[in-house]
Amino acid sequence: MAAKPEYRDRPDVEVALLDALVDRGDEGMTVLELRAAVDADIDAVEEALSALKEDSLITVESEESVRVYAHDRVIPDPDAPSEERHGGLVDTIRDRLGL
Predict the structure, then answer these.
(1) Higher per-residue pLDDT: 79 or 16
(2) How far apart are CA 66 and CA 48, in angstroms?
(3) Handedness of CA 41, 42, 48, 52 (dihedral sign)
(4) Considering the entire predicted model, what is its pTM?
């Protein structure tokens, strides 16, 4: 499962982290698990985690070990109807360019 579409316009590392966290749901992930799930160096992962935490898109709990969770608003509702786009190439380009 992927993060909601409104959170997919962030840098690639942040989107990859959110997607990994959404997949894990209630389990959350350690920083080491996130590093293994995302194709980026540790500095990029730490920077992305910091940005996501600053924007309140993730929560960090440190009881026995540090675990990171996606905020509920990032997780798509599995019961919501999927938004399929039926537009053509021109519509896709317009969406990408924000027109």
Answers:
(1) 16
(2) 16
(3) positive
(4) 0.74
